């Protein structure tokens, strides 16, 4: 099966979950829009009811951080549903622009790009569905002992929004992977050009015709300059497409990372609290918390990593272009323009809503915030235990 089959299957799943435009007009579009709004309203009502039903005895700040996951889910899902209901042609323009760029490659390169994209799509789609399926099973087994309606309600509030958000991230990540594959093919082309620039072994530097033969190989008829200029234009369009994707998904990615960071902090603190006073009969709850830690931490890392791959490809392009032989001022100017454009793009990585730099170097900031919040929660927990101990001791005092 080719990549288009898996891409269409993933889009069908996204449309069924109400987080991708139907691509239709007329009556079918309105039916899909109503279905999207129904799912959004269902998740919102379920989340609000869950907030009202929450009765666990814990400090106020801890309870606030724990419950922030629900409004976070509601807002991020609302953004996806908004674009699905809007059904703007811009949702497909980006994909069309990427495919136009791919069509400009050689036939063999096109097959390689689509094959790798199909493999990537299958891998991510299966990983997301299997992971959230496992979370659903854990929720049913641990909490409700196969009580269908109660577990259905719980999974509708927790695992359904989580699945929708994960698939929403894939809507951003898969087009970026295509852009990364395009840059990879450009790198391969420059490597081939570098090999073609080598003079024949029959000609040595002592031969009178070495310099002329070398010049012909390096920039025969200006072909090298034309190829570099085409790559520069393609790279510029890749940057524009990347910005278009980020303009659509920027707020969604930002809210997603904030929501995942807060949830990760709370789950990590609860994990610490579990080992502080272990109750091994609750080991199923421990496994469930570990799954949610993997999910929230994986989302933050994945969002940053997919952008990092593009930066890495651009760095590789810079290195290879610097290794090209230059024999004319025109070729030198063309290469310098390309290098300047790449260097500017590398030095100014894109940001989500101008707040979070989409680079794995930002993980240091996330870890700093994570440790600060977890230590703060631990201190509150230890303080409450100390106060409870004092109150218990006072209750055992004997007054004379």
UniProtKB/TrEMBL annotation:
Transmembrane domains' residue ranges: 27-45, 121-142, 162-183, 249-272, 284-304, 361-382
Gene Ontology biological process terms in this record: sensory perception of taste; signal transduction
Keywords: Cell membrane, Membrane, Receptor, Transducer, Transmembrane, Transmembrane helix
Pfam family, one: 7tm_7
InterPro entries: 7TM_chemorcpt (IPR013604)
Compartment list: Cell membrane
Membrane topology label: Multi-pass membrane protein
Entry superkingdom: Eukaryota
GO cellular component: a single term: plasma membrane
Location (main, coarse): membrane
Similarity remark: Belongs to the insect chemoreceptor superfamily. Gustatory receptor (GR) family.
Known role: Gustatory receptor which mediates acceptance or avoidance behavior, depending on its substrates.
The name this protein goes by in its record: Gustatory receptor
Organism: Drosophila suzukii
The gene coding this protein: Gr59e
